[in-house]
Design brief:
550 residues, alpha/beta, TIM Barrel, Immunoglobulin-like, eight-stranded parallel β-barrel, five-stranded antiparallel sheet, 21 strands, 17% strand, globular, binds beta-D-glucopyranose
Length: 550
């Protein structure tokens, strides 16, 4: 990195702690060549929007060369840009502009698996003797021809696919076209570390590491035990998916991963101010694993947690118990929270059915998310309070949704194009027919409709991110939960001498919460109208209150 913007960004090595990271799904952000699919030039063009929010960094979902069976999460060349998205020069342009605007760039490395078109896999599957024969997870069938064990693919069916050339099965935790790399092989690790270095030299500021707890499998290929029905939950896979019926102790979450994460960290530490957030998907031990991966200062900086991506409506007791469970499991660890992303139903719909005032609801949730102890990822369109888009079966693109339709509709409803201009063709996303339809309901909430309205959800995100930046306790502080009656939620964030009280009303009815003892100086600038009257904090529907404590 050579630009002045980049040098300023490199000065703060701890930038990731408490950062607000804005997730861009490149296919759906901004198209500049009329093919109906977003591209890197489009992201560059829209960086001003992200800067206007005050985000510290962007995480860009994969834009590498790919047959797009899983829309980029199936990489066939880690060191190039897929022509749909542009080329390496476009990426250099994106980084330069982001740094000029003070935004760091995190890219999404998918290292657990590749595409079946990746030359590594093409070679690996060609025989049992080639130089890359052991780069993927190959195993003989059982004597009766069935797969080696009971492991399941998240996207449905067995995690094993038969290969008629090698007369063996290969492992795939996702699509059959996403064969699992064998990270037990040090050559595979070296090749992946070289990929990371390639992008670090190019100027990226960090990584989102896809499915980080899937990197290693049990070498003995032992069967996963069945999970008791009462322990099943739909956090990382929908309830209709039998993936939830197993305890995933052998197909993922293996202890060998810790050593590899240390190797990965050592590469990052060769460069200034780099940070990584690892995605940990595990419905039973997710927080514990996130703690293991982020403790000790020698592995991941942060882990991305699924606790608030689940269908269950968020409640004060869920928030407190999740945060306290993480603190207990990993007092030194650091989590990155999100309410929405490109894999789950948008939270405005997931948690908002039956709620009449979606604007107030969205503002409250945004402020709660940005007050939690941890870093934050916000997903494109969340700042507009976009609901999940309704799609017809014929419009579906996501193989996951096609597999489980209609009980689980897949991930297309959260991936429809960003809406910039409510009056323009296709919401200003593209001049051509978009790869997924633009939702009519979204057009009314486009950036153009919210930009000039001080009371809009968009301006609330801008205001609240600025508010968070003003008080380091909100970004980096410790947390202590106070006992208040649901549906209110109260906690104190502390950093040095700064103590900030945060109180939320998670309901459509007004609430009253007793003022804590001692001096309470109400803060302003966050956009909420709660007030203290006679030692009581009065919160309107979906209200919040922030104050400095002595
Ligand atoms: C990504 C998904 C992807 C899967 C397989 C994830 O968790 O977020 O979009 O399908 O990994 O790479």
């Amino acid at each position: 990195m050579t630009t002045t913007g980049a040098s300023i960004l490199q000065a703060d090595k701890d930038w990731w702690r408490g950062a607000v990271i804005y997730q861009v799904y490149p296919r759906s952000y901004q198209d500049t060549n009329g093919d109906g699919i977003g591209d890197l030039k489009g992201i560059t063009q829209r960086l001003e929007h992200i800067a206007s929010l005050g985000a510290d960094a962007i995480w860009i979902s994969p834009f590498f060369t790919s047959p797009m069976k899983d829309f980029g999460y199936d990489v066939s060349n880690y060191e190039d840009v897929d022509p749909i998205f542009g080329n390496l020069a476009d990426f250099d342009g994106l980084i330069a502009e982001a740094h000029r605007l003070g935004i760091r760039v995190m890219i999404d490395l998918v290292m657990s698996h590749t595409s079946d078109r990746h030359p590594w896999f093409v070679e690996s599957r060609s025989s049992r003797e080639n130089a890359k024969a052991d780069w993927y997870v190959w195993a003989d069938s059982k004597p009766d021809g069935s797969p080696p064990n009971n492991w399941l693919s998240i996207f449905g069916g067995s995690a094993w696919q038969w290969d008629p050339t090698r007369l063996q099965y290969y492992l795939h935790n996702f699509l059959t076209s996403q064969p699992d790399l064998n990270l037990h092989n040090p050559e595979v690790q070296d090749a992946l570390l070289a990929v990371a270095r390639f992008w670090l030299v190019r100027g990226v500021d960090g990584f989102r590491l896809d499915t980080i707890n899937f990197y290693f499998h049990d070498k003995e290929l032992r069967d996963n035990p069945a999970l008791a029905p009462e322990r099943r939950n739909a956090q990382t896979a929908p309830a209709v998916n039998p993936y939830n019926y197993q305890e995933h102790i052998y197909d993922k979450n293996r202890p060998e991963n810790l050593e590899f994460l240390k190797r990965f960290r050592a590469v990052m530490d060769e460069f200034p101010a780099i940070a990584a957030v690892g995605e940990v998907g595990d419905s039973q031990r997710g927080l514990e694993i996130a703690g293991e991966y982020t403790s000790g200062g020698d592995k991941m900086h942060m882990c991305y947690a699924f606790e608030f991506l689940a269908p269950d409506p968020i409640t004060p007791s869920i928030v407190a118990s999740v945060q306290q469970a993480f603190e207990k499991a990993a007092p030194e660890g650091w989590v990155c929270w999100a309410f929405s992303n490109h894999d789950v139903m948008r939270h405005i719909t997931r948690w908002g059915l039956g709620i009449s005032d979606h604007v107030a609801h969205a503002k409250l949730l945004a402020s709660l998310l940005m007050s939690l102890k941890g870093s934050v990822c916000i997903y494109q369109g969340e700042e507009l309070a976009l609901p999940e888009a309704e799609l017809a079966y014929e419009d579906l693109q996501d193989p996951y949704g096609i597999q489980f339709w209609p009980d689980f509709k897949g991930r297309d409803g959260c991936r429809t194009p960003m809406v910039w201009d409510g009056k323009a063709l296709f919401g200003g996303f593209s001049d051509g027919k978009p790869w997924l339809p633009v939702s009519g309901e979204h057009l009314a909430r486009a950036v153009s409709a919210q930009d000039g309205d001080p009371d809009s959800v968009l301006n609330h995100y801008r205001r609240f991110i600025a508010f968070r930046k003003q008080y380091p306790a909100l970004a980096k502080g410790e947390v202590e939960y106070l006992t208040v009656d649901e549906p209110a939620l109260a906690f104190v964030r502390t950093y040095g001498n700064e103590r900030i009280l945060c109180v939320f009303n998670l309901s459509q009815e007004k609430q009253a919460v007793a003022k804590p003892d001692g001096a309470v100086e109400a803060l302003e600038g966050h956009g909420f109208k709660a007030a203290i009257k006679n030692d009581t904090i009065e919160l309107p529907a979906w209200g919040a209150f922030f104050a400095r404590l002595d």
